[in-house]
Amino acid sequence: MITVNRCGYDSKHMVALDTCNSMGNDDYTLLLVKTEAYFEQNGKLLDTPPNTVIIYDKHSYIHYGCRMPHYNDDWIHFELHGEDADLLQRLSLPLDIPFSLHYMGTLTDYSRLVVIEKLSSHIYQEKVLDSLMHTLLYSLASQYHTAPDPNRSNKYYYPMNELRTKILNAPNKKWDVHELADQIHISTSHFHHLYKFFFGHSCMQDVIEARIKHAKFYLRTTEMSIHSLAAFCGYENECHFMRQFKKMTGMTPRQYRILYQQQPSTTDNTP
Predict the structure, then answer these.
(1) Three-state SS letters, 88-112
(2) What is the residue extent of each domain of the chain?
(3) Looking at the domain covering 2-145, what would its CATH class be?
(4) What is the pLDDT of residue 67?
(5) How much is the pLDDT for 147?
(6) For residue 266, what pLDDT is reported?
(7) CA atoms of 245 and 255, how far apart (whole Å)
C-alpha cells in the first residue's frame, strides 16, 4: 500500500529558490519540476531543464533550487508499505538522481488528483490515494523506460517543447502565436505546423485546455468567485469563460463546483 503524508500541486515561488535539507525526510519525496532548476549531485550543482523528475529516498541529502524566479513544481511525500515496500526497485526508478521527460502533463494531472483527494474526507480516501499513487508511479516508470521520441531529432523540438511547457505552466497569460514564433525565429505558419506535428493539436487548444484544467482545480479547492476565477485563468470576459468551460466539460462552472467541491483542509503547502 502507498500512503500520502503531504502533497502540493503547482507550487510557485516568485523569488529565486534554494532548498537544502542535510538530514533528508522520513519518507520518499517526489518532485515534478515544471521549470528550469538545479540539483546537487556529487557535490556539484547540476542544471536541469523543465519537466525534470526526482524521487528522494528516505533520509537522503536534499539540495535543489532555481536561480531565477517562477520555480514551479508538484510534490508528494509518500510511504510504501507491505507488498509495495520494494515498488520503486521493481519499477527500476532511480532514487536521488534527477531525470528529464519530454512531457509531464499526464503526471501532473495525477498529482493534482492526489492533492484533491488528500484534501477530501471520506471513508475510502486511503484506498483512492493508494490507487492514484500506483497509477502515477507506473505511468512515471513507463515514461522513464520508453524509448526516446523520434521527434527529438528535429532541431525545433526542444525549443517548441520549452515554449509549450511555459504555456501549460502559465495559461492565464495572453499568449500570442506571432511572438512565440519570433522567439524561435520561424514564421507563424511554420510554428502552427510544427506545434501540431509535435504535440498533436494546436497551440491555442493547449492554452484553452490548460485554462480549463486550472479552473476546474480552483473550483474544487477554493471559494473564488466565478468572476475572479475567469480573470485568474486568463479570460477578460466572464461570459466567454463560462461558454468555453461548458463546451469543454458539459456543465457551467457553478454546476461543476457543486458537483465536485471538496472540504478544505490544513494540508501543508511546502515540500
Answers:
(1) HHHCCCCCCCCEECCCCHHHHHHHH
(2) 2-145, 150-260
(3) mainly beta
(4) 86
(5) 52
(6) 36
(7) 11
Query: Which CATH topology does 150-260 take?
Result: Arc Repressor Mutant, subunit A (1.10.10)
> What's the pLDDT at 150?
59
Count of alpha carbons within 13 angstroms of residue 169, beta-carbon side: 24
Tell me how far apart the alpha carbons of residues 164 and 199 are, in angstroms, rounded to a whole number: 9
Could you write out the DSSP letters of every residue in the chain? -EEEEEEEEEEEESS-EEEEETT--SSEEEEEE-S-EEEEETTEEEEE-SSEEEEEPTT--EEEEESSS-EEEEEEEEEE-GGGTTHHHHTT--SS--EE-S--HHHHHHHHHHHHHHT---TTHHHHHHHHHHHHHHHHHHHHHSPPPGGGGSTTHHHHHHHHHHHHH-TTS---HHHHHHHTT--HHHHHHHHHHHHSS-HHHHHHHHHHHHHHHHHHH----HHHHHHHTT-S-HHHHHHHHHHHHSS-HHHHHHHHPPPP-------
User: Among all chains, which residue has been given the C-alpha cell 500520502?
Assistant: 4
Q: What is the tens place of the pLDDT at every residue in 69-117?
A: 889 999 999 999 999 999 999 999 999 999 888 778 889 999 999 999 9
Q: Is-contact 11 269, C-beta < 8 A?
A: yes
All three cell numbers of 72, joined, read 514551479
Which residues of the chain are under the pLDDT cut of 50?
263-270
146 CB contacts (<8 Å, ≥6 apart)? none
Instruction: State the cell numbers at 259.
Output: 458537483
